[in-house]
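Field log, afternoon session.

UNIT: design team B
ACTIVITY: writing a sequence onto a fixed backbone
BACKBONE:
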């Protein structure tokens, strides 16, 4: 095994001792100390290590003595004895070496080592503690032997020597005649390794030979003889080294043990002997003795051949054995026998480290370290679950993950290692609060039940809780490192493969972990305040807000992954990548973006984000208000939420008379109108009641903006129903102006995008509004006609005037024409107000999993007369050359290089590519919009089509048509949540455009139109004419405050 330096700069072979000396093992125990003492211990330890590195033994001794004094001060504190003993051992290890090998203060070295033995003896509750005890004992006995050997005759040296030999023999299970020469050899090795003294090393080698006598060397002493040869070689005594190595080879060849038992030792011996022959040949050449030089060179070649043969055999044997042990480990792990699985993997590590690290085994040792870290993490987590926390499992996990990290080269592997360590410290973070409260008692309704039980002990724990909250754990450092590396990979990777998708998911997991860290601190802070009856003062509010803000930041960062998933690798523009990376890296930049967002949506705006983070079957809900205040609450995770939403959506779809239900999907006998009302009331109680107090302070015109999580993307927020409210106030839309957004960040970017669009002129003539409807699917098409969508186009033209509206009806409602008119403003530097699309939406197949629109097939015949369609839908030749832009653009606001509107704000406007659908395309998919290669200079897109808010649900968000339009640069999209009836949608759109014309913004206009439909009663029975499925399907996605330009509003 390769030697690794301890904190003292000394080398130890035993892996178990490394855990005592591990920097992160030390960090684990330092966290338990009062902050002042912990800082002092760490400072003196670092100074001591630095002094050893510089060879300043006196300063090193003084600093480690101060470390020991700090530990002694802990006696007066409530820090556990195990931590005190462990830290004392950590500080004493280098100090004992300094006393023994540099200052020859053997008595003090023995006293310190004896003290360490007593400390470790009290900790021997695992195999690892036993091995640490064993190793320290060896060093104690060799120090005791040298002390006795060097003592004056009057102090009876035989007592010290004999005592050391006797104890060493018992420890190693040796005969006493063998024990003494072993001690001498160890002294030779340690003097040479610690102080670099060849004189001391060779002195003790001679002493070992003298004690050993005629029995030297035998088969138990190969390691020590190899050490002797190495020291000879380092002292350039090559003849002596050659004799020692030749004697070893002769001894091994006469040994009756099978050759396979000595392959490794023999390969090492032949390697050293080869080097000796080479050096002797060089010297003979320098002396002019060519004959001797050739003889030595030939011997070097022969020994090299034998070395290579043995190395190959060792490697083959090692590979086979490693494979067998890996299989055995996987078998144990499959049976959740993590301890035996770890034993197998440690044997793998020992085997690999004992050979010369062939390339194929370098990968194996990386995997072994990673798997060992994972196994010990699971063991630590298990011990915490069973309230019998085993700190040794944690220390081992840290050790192996750190070893894994050292071997990593590729960015993804380095990120993975940091993520694993962050996960491990996340478990530790949860475990550290257990002495104060159980996690169950901190959250949810059970807190009230535990209140009187917990309150008496809360005061006693208050200081510990405050100390816990004041410390940042390594989780943050490791988590942030992993997040940054993953982000860099995602923004620079060029190939869309499983690796990229895996990195995307891991990146999201890191953000969830960091979100949980901040949430836990807020929860503990708040519960501790309640239990100790502390006042809600300014300092407490500031601390609580800090944790809540940080938690929201990580939740928002997690949501950016959905965009990257939709686009694929290397598809964001450089500006978009830059903005996203700044949001990922800089907390100040990120928070500035979030806190100002509600204000851009108008007075009284409230933003509600349902996080993907769960704890104890409850979802976390963030509430961000206009003044930048973040609140945090919880909602119970619903039972069978997906089934409920699917039943609800299916009923809403099949409530349309034009679309009868497929008998295989829903049974109306079991799910009827009453069931739908119950589910809408259930969802209201689940999602709205926890934030009811905040919402009660809002006026109806204030914007209530939802960012649903992955399971809530299909919730019909407008139709959520509170049966306790009076008539006219029961549906949520009756009390609030509602919209949805993928995240707060997206709203901020939509607002910035709108500012850029407003720098351009809105076209005052034909083309300010483009309206597409009643696509011609062909007489033999199975796709039904949408006649009322054609009437929507006619209504828009009648409302705004023929001079303002470009119509794309019937056969001209093709993807090609749609994209040509969408590209027209971008090419000519002006802004369209509205692009209205009335068509069939599709989301129920693999091809349309992210949403799509079924448009007219090129060449299809119109359903009825469309006069002068071709002429009206075509872009005038006079405008294709950019003359319009030259006349209307404001040169003081737009760059002369015509790139002003190519600016992007995160994903909003971050489109890249150069996709060309061709004139024969009949459908427009979400990905087509994302990769069209141009920004849509359009304030608002209205998707008067079915299911346009539905799409592919990811762990972050939903990938759908509105998300694609946001990426194309459209800040506001009106879209539907289910299959909508053609006729009633016309009524809804009539009201929507009428209120837009009157000056209302998009969300307010949509709400006003819904309320109008709710108020229309049947004169015969005074029942509402329009049902939920008819008035509630549409929501505004993106910026809800967009209005029509003044020239399109009523005078």
């Amino acid at each position: 095994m390769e030697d690794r330096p301890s904190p003292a700069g000394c080398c130890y072979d035993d892996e178990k001792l490394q855990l005592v000396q591990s920097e992160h093992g030390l960090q684990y125990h330092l966290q338990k100390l009062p902050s002042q003492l912990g800082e002092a211990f760490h400072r003196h330890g670092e100074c001591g290590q630095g002094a050893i590195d510089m060879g300043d033994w006196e300063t090193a001794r003084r600093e480690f003595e101060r470390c020991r004094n700090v530990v002694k001060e802990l006696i007066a504190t409530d820090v556990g004895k195990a931590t005190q003993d462990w830290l004392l051992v950590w500080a004493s290890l280098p100090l004992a070496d300094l006393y023994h090998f540099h200052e020859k203060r053997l008595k003090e070295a023995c006293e310190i080592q004896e003290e360490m033995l007593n400390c470790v003896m009290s900790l021997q509750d695992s195999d690892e503690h036993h091995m640490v005890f064993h190793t320290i004992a060896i060093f104690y006995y060799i120090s005791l032997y040298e002390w006795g050997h060097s003592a004056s005759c009057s102090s009876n040296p035989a007592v010290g020597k004999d005592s050391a030999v006797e104890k060493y023999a018992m420890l190693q299970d040796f005969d006493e005649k063998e024990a003494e020469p072993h001690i001498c050899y160890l002294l030779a090795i340690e003097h040479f390794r610690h102080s670099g003294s060849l004189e001391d090393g060779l002195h003790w080698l001679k002493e070992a030979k003298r004690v050993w006598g005629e029995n030297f060397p035998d088969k138990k002493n190969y390691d020590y003889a190899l050490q002797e040869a190495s020291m000879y070689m380092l002292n350039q005594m090559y003849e002596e080294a050659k004799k020692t190595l030749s004697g070893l080879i002769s001894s091994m060849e006469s040994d009756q043990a099978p050759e396979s038992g000595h392959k490794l030792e023999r390969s090492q011996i032949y390697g050293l002997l080869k080097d000796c022959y080479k050096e002797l040949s060089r010297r003979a050449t320098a002396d002019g003795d060519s004959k001797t030089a050739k003889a030595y060179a030939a011997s070097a070649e022969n020994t090299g051949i034998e070395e290579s043969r043995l190395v190959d055999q060792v490697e083959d044997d090692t590979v086979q054995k490693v494979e067998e042990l890996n299989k055995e480990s996987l078998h144990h792990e499959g049976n959740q026998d993590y301890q035996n699985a770890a034993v197998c993997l440690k044997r793998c590590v020992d085997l690999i480290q004992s050979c010369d690290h062939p390339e194929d085994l370098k990968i194996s040792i990386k995997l072994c370290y990673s798997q060992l870290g994972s196994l010990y993490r699971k063991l630590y987590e298990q011990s915490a679950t069973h309230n019998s926390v085993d700190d040794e499992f944690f220390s081992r996990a840290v050790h192996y993950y750190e070893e894994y990290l050292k071997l990593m080269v590729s960015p993804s592997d380095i990120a993975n290692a940091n993520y694993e360590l962050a996960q491990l410290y996340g478990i530790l973070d949860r475990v550290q609060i257990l002495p104060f409260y159980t996690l169950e008692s901190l959250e949810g309704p059970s807190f009230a039940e535990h209140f009187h039980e917990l309150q008496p002990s809360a005061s006693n724990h208050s200081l510990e809780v405050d100390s816990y909250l004041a410390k940042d754990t390594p989780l943050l450092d490791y988590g942030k490192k992993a997040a940054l590396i993953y982000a860099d990979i995602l923004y620079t990777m060029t190939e869309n493969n499983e690796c990229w998708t895996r990195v995307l998911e891991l990146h999201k997991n890191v953000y969830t972990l960091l979100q949980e860290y901040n949430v836990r601190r807020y929860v503990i802070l708040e519960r501790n305040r309640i239990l100790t009856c502390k006042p809600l003062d300014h300092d407490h509010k500031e601390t609580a807000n800090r944790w809540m803000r940080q938690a929201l930041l990580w939740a928002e960062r997690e949501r950016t992954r959905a965009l990257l998933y939709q686009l694929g690798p290397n598809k964001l523009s450089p500006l978009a990548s830059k903005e996203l990376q700044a949001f990922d890296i800089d907390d100040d930049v990120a928070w500035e973006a979030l806190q100002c967002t509600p204000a851009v949506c108008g007075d009284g705006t409230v933003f509600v984000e349902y996080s993907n983070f769960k704890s104890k079957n409850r979802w976390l809900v963030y509430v961000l208000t206009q003044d930048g205040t973040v609140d945090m609450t919880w909602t119970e995770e619903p039972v069978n939420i997906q089934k409920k939403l699917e039943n609800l959506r299916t009923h809403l779809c099949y409530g349309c008379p034009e679309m009868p239900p497929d008998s295989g999907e829903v049974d109306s006998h079991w799910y009827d109108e009453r069931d739908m009302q119950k589910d809408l009331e259930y969802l209201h109680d689940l999602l709205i009641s926890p934030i009811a107090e905040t919402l009660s302070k809002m006026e109806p015109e204030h914007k209530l903006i939802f960012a649903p999580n992955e399971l809530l993307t299909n919730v019909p927020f407008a139709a959520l129903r509170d049966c306790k409210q009076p008539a006219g106030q029961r549906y949520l839309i009756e009390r609030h102006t509602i919209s949805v957004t993928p995240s707060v960040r997206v709203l901020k970017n939509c607002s910035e995008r709108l500012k850029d669009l407003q720098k351009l002129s809105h076209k005052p003539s034909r083309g300010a509004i483009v309206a597409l409807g009643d696509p011609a699917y062909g007489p033999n098409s199975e796709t039904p006609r949408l006649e009322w969508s054609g009437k929507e186009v006619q209504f828009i033209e009648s409302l705004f005037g023929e001079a303002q509206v470009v119509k794309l009806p019937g056969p001209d409602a093709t993807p090609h024409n749609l994209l040509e008119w969408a590209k027209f403003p971008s090419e000519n530097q002006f802004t369209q107000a509205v692009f209205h699309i009335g068509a069939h939406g599709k989301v129920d197949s693999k091809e349309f999993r992210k949403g799509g629109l079924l448009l007219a097939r090129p060449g299809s015949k119109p359903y009825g007369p469309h006069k002068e369609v071709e002429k009206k839908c075509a872009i005038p030749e006079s405008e294709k050359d950019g003359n319009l832009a030259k006349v209307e653009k404001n040169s003081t606001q737009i760059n002369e290089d015509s790139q002003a509107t190519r600016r992007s704000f995160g994903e909003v406007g971050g489109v890249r590519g150069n996709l060309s659908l061709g004139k024969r395309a009949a459908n427009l998919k979400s990905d087509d919009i994302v990769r069209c290669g141009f920004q849509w200079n359009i304030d608002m897109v209205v998707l008067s089509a079915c299911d346009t808010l539905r799409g592919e649900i990811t762990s972050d968000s939903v990938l759908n048509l509105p998300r694609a339009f946001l990426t194309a640069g459209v800040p506001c999209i009106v879209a539907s949540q289910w299959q909508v009836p053609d006729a009633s949608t016309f009524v809804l759109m009539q009201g929507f455009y009428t209120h837009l014309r009157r000056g209302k913004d998009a969300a307010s206009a949509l709400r006003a139109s819904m309320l109008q439909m709710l108020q229309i009663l049947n004169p015969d029975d005074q029942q509402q004419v329009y049902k939920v499925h008819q008035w509630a399907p549409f929501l505004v996605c993106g910026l809800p405050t967009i209005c029509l330009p003044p020239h399109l509003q009523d005078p």
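LOG NOTE: The two ends are 86 Å apart (CA to CA).
NEXT ACTIVITY: expression trials, pending approval
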